[in-house]
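Troubleshooting: if your tokenizer reports a length mismatch, compare your output against this known-good record of 237 residues.
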Amino acid sequence: MFIITDSFIYWSVNLGALSIPLIFTFHPRLRFDREWKYALPAIVLVAIPFILWDAYFTRIGIWGFNDRYLSGGSLLGLPWEEVAFFICIPYACLYTYHCFRIFFGEGLWGPPWRIHWLIPLVCIFFLGMGWDGWYTRWTAISLLVFYLFHLLVWRSTYLNLFLMTYAVLLIPFLITNGILTGTGIEGEVVWYNPHEHLGLRILTIPVEDVFYGLLMVLASITIWEKWRAVDKTDFRL
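Known-good structure output:
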């Protein structure tokens, strides 16, 4: 019988999130592999700034990692599991978005709903409540600016579909991030400096993680959609 040891827990979270999307990537109805030319560059291009952000916050003590749950080895001061997180999770999220795109087609596309303005408003609220916390401040600023670009500059037509996808993704999010922040295990895989976030948690998950994840997923979808749009127009420099 296979037993997950403590040092393999983070890898188990990553591989668990990746397993079903990878298994069904080649399903004849879905064929997510045909989207790899858009999805894989999007994952890599988003992973780079997020890994650098992660590495810097780790270095200055905004968050850190429990060696008990790591297998060893690091890149830029980050455990390999954390680096893999920025590949496995976005792949699973883009796969889910792709499935929703197939199942719902153009039905959810169109001008952004008024509800989209709630996200910038929540970001502003967070900034007012937690300006002194590095995690709260920089997550809220980044998401606020990026979302306003979608609403006011790009006028993205896929935000409706994105929000529905992310709402569904919150279910596995609560499982994966819950484990990483201490739900169901002794201690935490990832710890957070209590002085650098609001202190509001969903179970064991800092509420900022919800918006951090939203930013990461939306950034991946944005690059994928723009890459697809360029390919459709057969753009040439």
